[in-house]
Amino acid sequence: MIPCSDLPKSQILRCAIALALPVALLSAIALPPQVQTATAQTAASNRPLTIRADVQEYDAKSQIVTARGNVQMLYPARQLQATAAQAQYFTKDRRIDFSGNVYILQQGGNSIRAEKVTYLIDEGRFVALPQSNRQVESIYMVQEAESGGQSAKPAPGTPPFKRSN
């Protein structure tokens, strides 16, 4: 057996990489990245609002939770799920600001896609803003009214669009 001091540096380096690479790959596969979870209790009903993200910070003075990176929010009391790049929960104002590729889904299928969305918890209201030169997209599931077991009359046709010169 040759002592390590007699081996060329390039061989030592190759050997170290050969040993370290499998360990690094196994740890990356076996150990998922740490995702931080915050659960807030809403004041009125003590129902949890759960936020998961790569990084979360809480400022005790301002009472603001900031979540960044792969943000996921689950709020069963309001039947809401949301994803975004960042979210800020303003506990005093009872408001959540989402930003960066925001997608909000309500039970029943209603959804909103926007660059920024503010959710006013007490009002149950969303304010959505698009990226520049884009639009906000909302999808609403509309229940068709039925009369006497038969479907309602079809909606009247839309008049043709008239161009003005």
Strand coverage percent: 35-45%
* H and E string: HEEEEEEEEEEE
Measured as a percent range, the helix fraction is: 10-25%
Give average pLDDT, whole number: 78
Total strand count, please?
A: 11
Shape: extended
In the predicted model, the low-confidence regions spanning at least 5 consecutive residues are: 20-34
Main sheet? 9 strands, antiparallel
Class by SSE composition:
mainly beta
Distance between the termini: 92 Å
CA-atom Rg in angstroms: 26 Å
Number of helices: 1
Your description of this structure?
The protein has 165 residues and is mainly β. It is built from 1 helix and 11 strands; from the N terminus they run H-E-E-E-E-E-E-E-E-E-E-E. The strands form 2 sheets. Strands 1, 2, 3, 4, 5, 6, 7, 8 and 9 form a 9-stranded antiparallel β-sheet that branches. Strands 10-11 form a two-stranded antiparallel sheet. The longest helix is centred in the first third of the chain and has 22 residues, at 9-30. Mean pLDDT is 78; it is low at 20-34.
List keywords for this structure.
single chain, 165 residues, mainly beta, 9-stranded antiparallel β-sheet, two-stranded antiparallel sheet, 1 helix, 45% strand
Give the topology, please.
Blueprint: H1 9-30, E1 36-41, E2 48-53, E3 55-59, E4 64-75, E5 80-90, E6 95-106, E7 111-120, E8 125-129, E9 137-139, E10 146-147, E11 150-151
Antiparallel strand pairs: 1-2, 2-4, 3-4, 4-5, 5-6, 6-7, 7-8, 7-9, 10-11
